[in-house]
Amino acid sequence: MGAGDHLRRRARLRAAADRRRALGARWIAPPAAGVDRRRDGPPAARGAARPLEPRRDPAPPAQLALDPVRRARHAGRAAPGVPTVGSNNWNGGLAATRHLVGLGHRRIAVVSGPEDVLCSRARVDGYRSAHDEVRLPRDPSLVRWGDFDADGGYLHGRELLSRPDRPTAIFAGSDYQALGVMRAARELGLRIPEDLSVVGYDNLSISRWFDPAITTVNQPLREMAALATQMLLTLSDGGVPASTRVELGTELVVRSSTAPPATP
Q1: Distance between CA 116 and CA 24 in Å, rounded?
Q2: What is the pLDDT of residues 135-182, one digit of tens each?
Q3: Cis peptide leading into 30, omega within 30 of 0?
């Protein structure tokens, strides 16, 4: 690897680390302490802890994985038997959509993450369940798969909101996607929440300071990181975690970006 390649690789890793700190992480632990299979060079000494690396596939930037499960993460889920720490994404999608339905919205779009990522599908499944429980018809064209980034939220938002039968509410799969949707709405002359309600996901600090403040689904990111760290330490000492799969609860945080739909 040349000096230029090395510098570019370090820059990419630094950028990924910055985004990880902003978004939190879903941790996937190695199946057991052992050989550290690094991308470059010979295997490290047995028993050495493997540092986490940012994902390099289209999965959400908030997710991380270790080399022993690199192939599994491309499918958006951990390999069987691999300890994981996550949150209840289905319940988050259900709560967000129930909130919008309860406000009176009947045309609700969802802009989620990649379709092959488990948490993306779970959030969309929750969105669908909220429709089904009140027998509200679902329009498949209002379901969009993105990349959890603001750019994706903006592009899908422009497409959805330019339709003659545009949705009156959009549930975004991340707070960054929600920001993209809100920018698209403003460019099209739509007011939030008067003309469009928007719900995000993650409850990042920026969601409180944006105008209007974003209604969002809170993930317990600190608790997830603490449990994942404890799990990794247990595995590195040769122990067995008390549970191989931990799923923490989510909750809806209602702010100013949602309101009843405007009356015709």
Answers
A1: 20
A2: 999 999 999 999 999 999 999 999 999 999 999 999 999 999 999 999
A3: no
Q: Is the pTM of this model over 0.85?
A: no
Nearest residue to 54 (alpha-carbon basis) of 111, 9, 117? 9
Helix axes 89-103, 118-133, angle to 10 degrees: 40
- Counts of helices then strands in the chain (DSSP H, E): 8, 11
| Topology at the third CATH level for domain 89-218 | Rossmann fold (3.40.50)
Task: Locate the domains of the chain by residue range.
Answer: 3-39+50-85+222-245, 89-218
Q: Which two tokens stand for residue 245?
A: 């799969």
Strands 27-28 and 84-87: antiparallel
Q: Report the C-alpha gap between 195 and 210 in whole angstroms.
A: 17
Q: Which amino acid is located at 263 in the chain? A: T
Strands 169-172 and 197-202, how do they pair? parallel
Q: Where are the beta strands (DSSP E) in the chain?
A: 27-28, 53-54, 64-65, 84-87, 108-112, 143-145, 169-172, 197-202, 215-218, 245-248, 251-253
CA of residue 48 relative to chain centroid, distance? 30
For position 164, what pLDDT does the model report? 95
